[in-house]
Prior knowledge:
- By secondary structure, the chain is mainly α.
- It has 29 helices and six strands.
- A six-stranded parallel beta sheet has the order 3-2-1-4-5-6, with helices on both faces.
- The longest helix is centred in the middle third of the chain and has 38 residues, at 372-409.
- The chain is globular.
- Mean pLDDT is 78; it is low at 179-189.
Amino acid sequence: MTGIFLQAFIYLMAAIIAVPIAKRFGLGSVLGYLIAGVVIGPVIGLVGSETTTIQHFAEFGVVMMLFVVGLELEPKMLWSMRHRLLGLGGLQVVVTAAVVMGVAMALGLGWTYALAIGLIFSLSSTAIVLQTFNEKGLSKTEGGKSAFSVLLFQDIAVIPMLALIPLLALPELVEKAQSTVATAAEHHDELSLVVGLPGWGYAIVVIFAIAGVVVGGHYLSRPLFRFVTSSGLREIFTATALMLVIGIAVLMSLVGLSPALGTFLAGVVLANSEFRHELESNIEPFKGLLLGLFFITVGAGINFGILFEQFGTIIGLTLGVMLIKALVLLILAFVFKVKGSDRWLFALSLAQAGEFGFVLLNYTVQNNVLPTELGQTLSLVVALSMFLTPGLFILYDKVILPRFSAAQNEHEADEIDEQGKVIIAGIGRFGQVVNRLLTSNGMQTVVLDHSVTQIDMMRKIGIKSFFGDATRHDLLHTAGIEDAKVFVVAIDDQERATELVHYIKQNYPHVRVLARAYDRGHHYSLRYAGADYTISETYRSALAMGAQALKELGVHPFRAEQQKEMFVETEIKSKELLYQTWSNNTEEDRFNTSYVELFRQLEQTLGEVMKQERNRPERGWAPPPKNFIEEAEQMQADKNN
């Protein structure tokens, strides 16, 4: 027991140290886990032979991940992506397997070896790619959606691969490992419901298993979850969620199917369930920990002895496989019209081998399709390709994406053929509202934005706008800045917004500058730069929401509006004092101790002001009846009793 605790402590400590450091340097959590595994395994030897056993356990994190993915996919959504799923995903698996097989045969391997290797390397890492997509917010991009379709098809394709691989067994390998195979067969018989069944019998069992998951998930899960939730014990619901996932995984394993596919199917069935979000929140922590443990075991399992003995071969094979996969994916991206940076995201994100590659490698060795020595070498290739994948995401973030963004921004600016008294820089969600209010009142505006996509969208809905960078001096001149009366700054980049305000007030002091602030610090910076009026885009909506919350809690609407106005008045009074304190501090220490202390004092003052009665009536509001507060408090007390 002490040994188990010690190993758990080592793995957790490695993750706690390595992952935050990797995240801080922009490397992503996956690379942090992999580095942690390398350090505690091959480098300093804190973990050893138990890594493979733990890896089999940690692979259950992939199963949980696919269950969560299924929960987020409604059947209608899955049907809508069928063309991309079958077309893009199917072609990727077939073409990649064929190309890798051809290269393997050209290197002198037999066709059975080559086919098995092609199938193994046609798969990519669902765990790494989806985890990284979620961290970087890439799941909703065109490249992210295309990659997800391919990953989904790959996970489904594992089933026919598992059925095909035993047919590729070589007689000489069977004879060499006959005793081992016999032992494995006996063990397999104990854990399988389909061994010895004829083909039609196996098909019937599989159909019944899948039907059981679908029917049970749709009709039986809801009564079960209602019964469990009636207990009011959250830990029992968590136990039920784990039981459901583990039970489906066991069922799929007993009938020779992929546990990950079974849990994914169950997730899709439960996607419309009212318990979907509760299930996801209960499974998520276990999924994250097990996935992290899986990545650590991948790093810890790298055999540096074999790596150094065959360094050139293994590195060459790893880079070759990744290059082949990236080229195939790029070609498919052209065919399926994935454009711009999304094309490179699609190709680079799937260029590695996957965790199911380890499963298929073990399966091919056990079924005498590949010799053990070759299997060990290929396992290193799979592990190294996964290890290099975060580097490909860094390449995309730091090199490829900025180039496409720069190319978009270097798009030739539109010829501005209009001038107005109001110039609006930025036509996002904030600038649109300002522009609509002005134009609906007959005001002539000139709208500038540096996003081609945003400009095209505005033109489609009839809002005239011009492509161009509002910080360019010549463009401002063309837009009529000399004769403008008002300049609205509504661009997202805080630094550029502040610089723009400063430039306009320095060169065109007659222009009133109204600026959108991101937060309190940005508000101060804009004012310091000379803005005549600043407002946070969330300020008014947050006030309205707070007032509504007071009403929902039983405060009379009249009183709620009074409290809101008193809050605004107190904020206005304190704003000047806070700004003066901020501006008097050094640039490196704007929010120092004196500022924080003043802010706390003003918050205390705000609380005292809110307790005061205010007799001035609010326009448009009928005051509450006499003794309203006392009667409301008495009614609440009676209700509680």
